[in-house]
Specification:
- This protein has about 280 residues and is an alpha/beta fold.
- It contains 13 helices and seven strands.
- The chain has a seven-stranded mixed beta sheet with strand order 3-2-1-4-5-7-6, with helices on both faces.
- Helix 6 packs across helix 7.
- About 5% of the residues have low confidence.
Length: about 280
């Protein structure tokens, strides 16, 4: 085994090595996961049973961001127009912020823009406020919120919604997708980063890391969603299903662009309302 401290010392920006450290705190849930397969067993294992998850996720995000010249490289990949708009100043919403690694970096790089970042985990929100204060970042409003039930006062308020690694964990992702257009201004944009897999399991299993992805998905992603009474999409829900669900949520095919093969192992969905940004 290889814990986080050893991994960060050996290869501080290795996404794959850091990803493998998740096995340390996920596979010890084997008895709880096994109980879910019993006739009268629980639906899943909840977030409260994964106390190390948020810190692990923050570490993985840090590795990926370091390797991808985040945030400027990421925004320019989506389009120079987005980078330029952020430079001038726009309103941005980030659902499912976790430990805030993405929004802190983006807000620091683009000080003229205003950010609202939320998570269902109240402890993370309070920790993020402390981190922002330590770094002197004043253009983020951290609040608690439910991605599957977006606040009414957010309707039509944002130019850009940025989503990282959380859609497949949600209990009701279809509701989250349906709510996205409503919070955007007339010419707004969404970017959604998620795992790049195929919905076709036969096709997906030809990929070398598939066994690890399915294993982690079973031991965390699917489980936390099911525990909340959700659909349990899991990390390997796939690009085909994601596009289908986005269509059912009201996004036309012409409004959806999928960027793959740039960020290893990830797909970025770019959704444009009206003319976009």
């Amino acid at each position: 085994s290889c814990d986080n401290d050893v991994a960060s010392t050996l290869l501080p920006s290795s996404e794959v090595l850091h990803f493998m450290t998740s096995l340390e705190f996920m596979l010890d849930k084997e008895p709880q996961i096994g109980a879910c397969f019993k006739k009268d067993g629980p639906l899943g294992v909840g977030y409260c049973d994964y106390p190390n998850f948020q810190d692990w996720m923050a570490g993985w995000s840090h590795c990926r961001n370091t390797n991808q010249n985040f945030p400027e490289g990421y925004m320019k990949m989506i389009g120079d127009h987005l980078h330029n708009a952020l430079e001038k100043g726009i309103t941005v919403l980030e659902p499912g912020c976790g430990r805030g690694r993405h929004v802190l970096a983006v807000a620091k790089r683009y000080p003229n823009s205003k950010f609202t970042s939320f998570d269902i985990d109240a402890e993370c929100i309070e920790l993020n406020k402390v981190d922002a204060e330590k770094e002197g970042i004043t253009n983020i409003d951290f609040v608690t919120g439910d991605f599957c039930n977006l606040k009414a006062e957010w309707q039509g308020n944002f130019d850009y919604v940025m989503i990282f690694d959380c859609m497949h964990d949600l209990p009701h992702p279809a509701l989250a997708m349906k709510g996205l257009k409503g919070v955007l201004k007339e010419d707004g944009m969404v970017s959604m980063l998620d795992i790049d897999t195929s919905t076709d399991m036969v096709q997906q299993t030809k990929t070398p890391l598939s066994a690890v992805l399915y294993n982690i998905s079973l031991h965390h992603c699917m489980s936390v969603s099911l525990e909340m009474g959700g659909v349990g999409l899991g990390a390997c829900w796939g690009v085909e299903l994601a596009k289908k669900m986005l269509g059912e949520a009201g996004w036309a095919e012409s409004e959806i662009q999928v960027i793959t093969k740039i960020i290893p192992g990830h797909a970025v969905y770019v959704l444009k309302k009206g003319n976009g940004i």
